[in-house]
Design a protein that fits this description.
Layout (H helix, E strand, L loop, with lengths): L2 E2 L12 H12 L7 E6 L5 E5 L5 E7 L6 H7 L1 H7 L5 E8 L14 E3 L5 H19 L6 H10 L1 E4 L4 H8 L10 H18 L8 E2 L11 E3 H13 L22 H20 L4 H17 L5 H9 L11 H15 L1
Helix pairs in contact: 1-6, 2-4, 6-7, 9-10, 9-12, 10-12, 11-12
Protein name: CD-NTase associated protein 4-like DNA endonuclease domain-containing protein
Organism: Anditalea andensis
């Protein structure tokens, strides 16, 4: 069993806004979001999700094109259809596009639907467009009629109706999404788009892999936890897990320690925060504590770490040994530093 990468973007153009939207849709809005561990860019398709064990792929073809006609839709289905012929397990095929014309659909209220929602005439033209593209690329020596019908019964159309900021808010694990401004979210979106672009700056055309997770070796991917880390660092304002110096407002707790003990304390706090974020069991608690600190600073910014801790966590019950009092105080100091 193998898969050869074809039609990748050799020209290394920047990842489009629409492709980044489709990434955020996949991990923030789709039904499969909890199953996905890795996101790949321009490998199997524009964006694809892979589960932790490398058994399943969720595939997205994105087209940021206004007024798509049915024949073009069918043509653009080709990459998804081609993947449906693969021995790799593609669990879902999604076509991510701008809102299509009402006249094409039987139920115009749906923004997520199968081909059964297309009017019969529209569906016939879509199918004709796909058949024509299959013959153009693969020739007519093999009859793919059965495979095309099976694929068309499975493909999901996702019409984009969400702003860049709203997509980001879907994956920020704060209850109060208004903690940050829309401009803040938009800037993070642009930065994530650029990260996605850089990930595509490698040549993989005609490379072949024998297992799904072999794609990771090409470094055209992000782990969901990479995205979590990116987000929390931007929100806090410091590179939380690579912060090597002692935060100035935490130094009151380390000044009396021998230098080696102070260094060990900082390393342990960093390790604890990393463990808390990367552990699915404690991930929500990490975000909850960050939100508590940020909400407090919205109305009462102060630099006394001990006072902040007593005010907001004086009666806090430690739920995880690695998210202890010292580590929370260290996190408070980091957020103070990032806010100044």
């Amino acid at each position: 069993m193998s898969y050869t990468f074809r039609n990748t973007e050799i020209n290394n153009e920047k990842a489009s806004v629409f492709e980044t939207k489709s990434l955020l849709y996949l991990i923030g809005k789709s039904d499969c979001k909890k199953e996905i561990e890795y996101i790949t860019f321009d490998c199997f398709n524009d964006v694809s999700g892979i589960d932790k064990s490398g058994n399943n792929i969720w595939d997205i073809q994105s087209k940021n094109e206004a007024n798509l006609n049915p024949k073009k839709i069918g043509k653009y289905f080709f990459t998804l259809f081609d993947n449906s012929l693969s021995k790799f397990r593609f669990k879902e095929y999604m076509f991510f596009c701008q809102e299509l014309k009402d006249e094409y659909k039987t139920d115009n209220s749906l923004k997520l639907y199968h081909c059964s929602n297309f009017e019969a005439k529209t569906f016939g033209r879509i199918k004709a467009g796909l058949v024509e593209e299959v013959k153009r690329v693969k020739g007519d020596s093999i009859d793919y009629s059965s495979e095309i019908d099976t694929f068309l019964s499975k493909v999901v159309i996702v019409e984009d109706e969400t702003t860049e900021q709203e997509y980001l808010k879907l994956i920020i694990k704060f209850k109060n999404k208004a903690l940050k401004t829309d401009d803040f979210y938009l800037n993070i979106f642009k930065e994530l788009r650029d990260i996605q672009s850089v990930k595509k700056n490698s040549l993989i055309e005609n490379q072949t892999i024998s297992n799904i997770l072999d794609v990771i070796s090409y470094n055209r991917h992000l782990k969901i936890l990479d995205i979590d880390t990116f987000l929390i660092c931007r929100i806090i304002g410091v590179e939380i897990f690579s912060h090597k110096s002692i935060p100035i407002y935490f130094s009151v707790f380390t000044n009396t320690l021998p230098i080696e003990d102070a260094i060990d304390s900082i390393q342990e706090c960093n390790s604890n925060l990393s463990r808390c974020l990367f552990n699915k069991a404690s991930n929500k608690e990490f975000w909850k504590i960050c939100e508590t600190i940020l909400v407090h600073f919205e109305t009462n910014f102060e630099t006394n770490v001990e006072n902040v801790y007593k005010t907001k966590f004086g009666s806090y019950s430690i739920k995880y040994s690695y998210l202890n009092e010292v580590t929370i105080k260290y996190l408070i100091a980091l957020i103070i530093e990032g806010s100044k």
